[in-house]
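[AMINO ACID CHAIN]
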Amino acid sequence: MLLRSIFAALLLAAPAAQAVGLFENPPSGVAVSGASLISGWHCTATRIEIEYDGGPARTPAASGTDRPDTAGVCGGKRNNGFGLLVNWADLGAGIHTVRAFADGELMDTRTVTVVTFGTVLLTGRTTANTTTVVDFPSEGREAVLEWREGLQSFVVKEVRSGPSLSGTWNGPNLERRSNCNASQNNGERGTYAAWIITQDAVGDQIRIVENGITGLRCTYTGPYRYNGNQVEWFDGTYECNDGKTGNFNSTAVHVAASAFSIKLAIKLTGSEACDIEALLGGNRF
């Protein structure tokens, strides 16, 4: 009896399904920039229009494009897609509303925040203007983004294996000490070191051995995790051959093929209980 009721409800809903549609892009509440597509689909509409900030004018969108994924809800009909290319900078920076209408009936409203480069059309930048996003789309990989003037945005040029901290580096160790028991230990200090780093992806541990030019040898060990694409090195322990011991958490971790920098917040736990802001840095060929 229950199955019959469900089947009857589906049959009754079928004609109404022919009038359904979806305003897909952009999602509401997001930041938008450059040139991109306002898009979606509708089963029966012959006219799709887009309205910004309440009008008064509405802009027709191209419609009737092939959307095989909508055939199941549109009675086998596939030419249901619509799209309109918009340069968001034309609207001006700030919050805007975008509404889609199907044959004069409101489909849905989106609220977006437009971000601009301070001009409607940024020109004179070449495809040599690239930037790299590390640990994206997954840990240990990186995406190279290339500027495209026609889109007023960056596109993915290449996805490749990303740099690892593991290896030997040479560079400075800078410290800013405060709240020391002995006031003469407060202040800024710096030295130079060879860094031997192991980043263990299996055990999720980073271990750094610092061999300073003064003979100081320190070891930093702790687990790491990813917060989005950012490495967090946390709950670490710190000990040196001159007797210093402490705990630390990272405040920033950056690594490229030939350079790294790590900012640490260290709390000494031995006889000298300083707070240390440390910057470890290094380069390699």
In short: The CA atoms of residues 9 and 159 lie 48 Å apart. Helices lie at 2-17. Residues 1-18 have pLDDT under 50 and may be disordered.
